[in-house]
Amino acid sequence: MPKFKISMKNTNEKFVSGNGETIILTNTEYDPAMWIVEIFKKSMFGKKKTGSYWFSHKEDAEDFVTDYVKK
């Protein structure tokens, strides 16, 4: 029986909230079970991470991002 290699790509989706924060939804091939939402705010010296949220399901992470962008 032949062996198949499952190839997965890293996922990085970028969103911008109503108040100018950058939200990045990430899923890596090294830990495909985790979906990470990172929130960045512009500051005088670049970007500052203001939040990091971890989800085990893509749908939960997408729902969080959708709600966050609306506020």
Task: Give me some keywords for this one.
single chain, globular, 71 residues, four-stranded antiparallel beta sheet, alpha+beta
Q: Secondary-structure map with pairings?
A:
Layout: E1 11-16, E2 22-28, E3 31-43, E4 46-55, H1 58-70
Give a short synopsis of this structure.
The chain contains one helix and four strands, in the order E-E-E-E-H. By secondary structure, the chain is α+β, with helices and mostly antiparallel strands.
Question: What does this protein look like?
Answer:
It is a single chain. With 71 residues, this protein is of the alpha+beta class. 18% of the residues lie in helices and 51% in strands. It contains 1 helix and 4 strands, in the order ββββα. The protein has a 4-stranded antiparallel sheet, with helices on one face. β1 and β2 form a beta hairpin. The longest helix is centred in the last third of the chain and has 13 residues, at 58-70. The model has no long low-confidence stretch (mean pLDDT 86).
